[in-house]
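Example 9 (inverse folding). The structure is encoded as follows.
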């Protein structure tokens, strides 16, 4: 995967077009979403649209250097994900869409009652899907050289020219009101690549994504825990639990990092090629002032802090993507993953900063 591409592993659930809670593929669910067995021993997200409403999962766009969600529409998006249908619709139903910063779909995929895909309402594709079977979908939307290609299991299903404008986000599920034919499908292991030039993205062979869980307090250990003996125990839950358990800092220049379980324990075999990592933290402030924070990674001799930002009043997800190891500027190794620490720095402020959950995921072949 190119060094300037963006790895995107988390989801924002939307019910009826209204932004809801944040979720991971190992996380929480909404009314029309549930967590079921995934393709690689983890969990996959099951989507079951009902009535005529929007029931979709929104994958956010790129992150800024502070860890906040970006808002820049791009000429090129390459979306890769795994997909299976467990119940077919009785008519054409939207299963995925590429949208712009305004939330307007620019291109979309539909599933027919015969279990074929359609691109933008066109003719059904040649591949008939089999129920309860995983398929690898990659979808290149490319205004740079005016091409759009959808592949199933690395074989071209659709090819033509895009008919929309720039894009920034990906919806999985019914991203527009439907006629209520319904369906049930499961999505897993999503990677998005964004760019202004198609040369900056690249197809990826079928891959896996695994989460490394916090298993100890790290080198930096200045914060306090709300209810648990060690800080890592307050942030290691899969479902963020708001203020039930959390790590807290009210002291300027306090930093806290966490060690992670070994890659082998998480199911990443030795010899794997690491495509990239994403580290995300749920943070908020407790005072009217906006507490600053920096997302920190300790790798080898390098302490790498993201640019400083201000914490929101309510818990929000902040994330950073590292396609290469910050210590070496080269592809991550298993040894580096086994030694990495993730955490937060609380610079230049005594305003209270809270973190309720951290999440570190690894994409690999």
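The amino acid assigned to each position is listed next.
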């Amino acid at each position: 995967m190119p060094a300037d591409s963006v790895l995107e592993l988390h989801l924002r659930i939307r019910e009826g077009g209204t932004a809801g809670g944040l979720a991971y593929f190992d996380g929480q669910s909404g009314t029309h979403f549930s967590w079921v067995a995934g393709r690689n021993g983890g969990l996959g997200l099951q989507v079951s649209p009902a009535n005529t409403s929007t029931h979709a999962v929104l994958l956010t766009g790129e992150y800024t250097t502070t860890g906040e969600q970006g808002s820049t529409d791009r000429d090129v998006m390459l979306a890769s994900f795994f997909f299976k249908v467990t119940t077919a619709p009785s008519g054409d139903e939207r299963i995925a869409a590429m949208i712009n910063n305004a939330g307007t779909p620019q291109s979309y995929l539909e599933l027919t009652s015969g279990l074929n895909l359609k691109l933008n309402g066109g003719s059904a594709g040649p591949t008939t899907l089999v129920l309860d079977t995983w398929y690898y979908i990659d979808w290149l939307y490319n205004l740079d050289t005016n091409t759009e290609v959808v592949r199933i299991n690395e074989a071209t299903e659709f090819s033509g020219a895009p008919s929309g404008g720039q894009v920034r986000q990906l919806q999985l599920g019914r991203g527009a009101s439907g006629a209520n034919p319904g369906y049930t499908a499961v999505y897993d292991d999503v990677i998005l690549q964004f760019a202004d030039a198609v040369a900056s993205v690249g197809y990826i062979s079928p891959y896996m994504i695994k989460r490394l869980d916090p298993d100890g307090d790290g080198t930096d250990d200045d914060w306090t825990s709300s209810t648990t003996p060690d800080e890592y125990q307050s942030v290691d839950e899969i479902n963020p639990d708001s203020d039930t358990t959390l790590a807290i800092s009210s002291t300027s220049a306090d930093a806290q990092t966490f060690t992670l379980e070994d890659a082998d324990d998480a199911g990443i075999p030795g010899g794997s090629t690491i495509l990239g990592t994403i580290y995300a933290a749920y943070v908020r402030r407790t005072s009217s002032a906006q507490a600053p924070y920096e997302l920190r990674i300790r790798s080898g001799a390098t302490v790498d802090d993201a640019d400083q930002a201000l914490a929101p009043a309510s818990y929000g997800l902040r994330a950073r993507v590292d396609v290469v190891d910050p210590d070496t500027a080269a592809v991550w190794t298993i040894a580096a993953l086994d030694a990495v620490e993730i955490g937060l720095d609380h610079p230049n402020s005594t305003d209270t900063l809270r973190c309720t959950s951290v999440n570190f995921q690894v994409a690999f072949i």
